[in-house]
Amino acid sequence: MALAAAASLATGCSGPPAPDAAICLDVIHRLCLPVRCPVVTSTFAVGDPCELDLRARTGCDQDDFTFQEPLTRDRVLECRLLLLRAGLEPQRHPGCEDVAEMIDRCPDVTAFLAGQP
Predict the structure, then answer these.
(1) How far apart are CA 42 and CA 9, in angstroms?
(2) In the chain, which stretches have pLDDT less than 70?
(3) What is the pLDDT at residue 14?
(4) DSSP-assigned letter for residue 86
(5) What are the C-alpha distances in Å from 4 to residues 11, 27, 63, 105?
(6) What is the pTM of this model?
(7) Residue 27 near residue 76, CB atoms below 8 Å
(8) C-alpha distances in angstroms, 10 versus 22, 38, 92, 107?
(9) 26: exposed, middle or buried (C-beta count within 10 Å: 0-12, 13-18, 19+)?
(10) Which residue among 1, 79, 110, 116 is least enclosed by CB atoms within 10 Å?
(11) 3-class SS at 75?
């Protein structure tokens, strides 16, 4: 029950659900916020601009982007919760320990962001 409440809070409770592209772009944005956590640079082999690199790898900047099986929207939202511990504001930098935990606990999302099939 608490997880469902947290998921509702994290995804917003008013209006229609965010498109998959917006969710993906938000995850990328939070991972790439300066000062970028070293684990992001080492895991994804990104430089600057980090966001452009990850957008190109994932294709989630396309208007018609949708998550494809086996990676589901719900799974990405679950992993995204780890990046929201410091706050919901888009410019709120997640703690590097939270980023490392997301990378560790969400190997499927990590592989997707790295551009791996």
Answers:
(1) 31
(2) 1-14
(3) 63
(4) T
(5) 11, 19, 28, 19
(6) 0.85
(7) yes
(8) 13, 25, 13, 21
(9) middle
(10) 1
(11) helix
How many whole angstroms from its chain centre is CA 4? 18
Report the 10 Å Cβ neighbour count for 45.
10
Provide the pLDDT for residue 5.
Answer: 39
**73 close to 112: Cβ distance less than 8 angstroms:** no
Tokens coding 95: 């703690």
Q: Between vectors from CA 83 to CA 11 and to CA 114, what angle results, nearest 5°?
A: 105
Residue 46: its pLDDT value, please? 93
Q: Which of 10, 18, 13, 29 is nearest to 78 (CA)?
A: 10
- Distance of alpha carbon 3 from alpha carbon 51, whole angstroms: 29
Query: What percentage of the chain exceeds 70 in pLDDT?
Result: 88
